[in-house]
Design brief:
106 residues; alpha+beta; 2 domains; 3-stranded antiparallel sheet; 3 helices; 3 strands; 43% helix; elongated
Length: 106
């Protein structure tokens, strides 16, 4: 499996130069590389899908943090968590899920 495009992703609107049709894309914030194009005249479902796709790198990072926490807890049930803030990671995961489910376009 190849690596995904690194960095944050964003949802962006675009007008075709030769057409008067709007389009929605998901692209890398730092390079502008298009991850996916939702096509012309996007529906509300297309916009929701674009937001969900754009949140993938952040969701992955948050879930990886939670997996690390779970591994640590399983390794040592008497662990003092070594300063690890469980509530902070869970709040971040919840916020990212909420971001992916937003009803308004980003």
């Amino acid at each position: 499996m190849s690596k995904h495009t690194q960095g944050e992703w964003e949802v962006a609107s675009r007008q075709h130069a030769s057409l008067c049709s709007p389009s929605i894309e998901v692209r890398a914030k730092d390079t502008g590389r298009v991850i996916c194009d939702m096509g012309d005249y996007p529906t509300d479902e297309d916009r929701a899908n674009a937001r969900f796709i754009a949140s993938a790198p952040k969701l992955l990072e948050a879930l990886e943090d939670l997996v690390g926490l779970a591994k640590g807890a399983m390794r040592d049930a008497n662990c003092d968590w070594a300063g690890y803030d469980v509530d902070e990671d869970l709040a971040e995961a919840r916020a990212l899920v909420a971001e992916a489910r937003k009803e308004t376009q980003t």
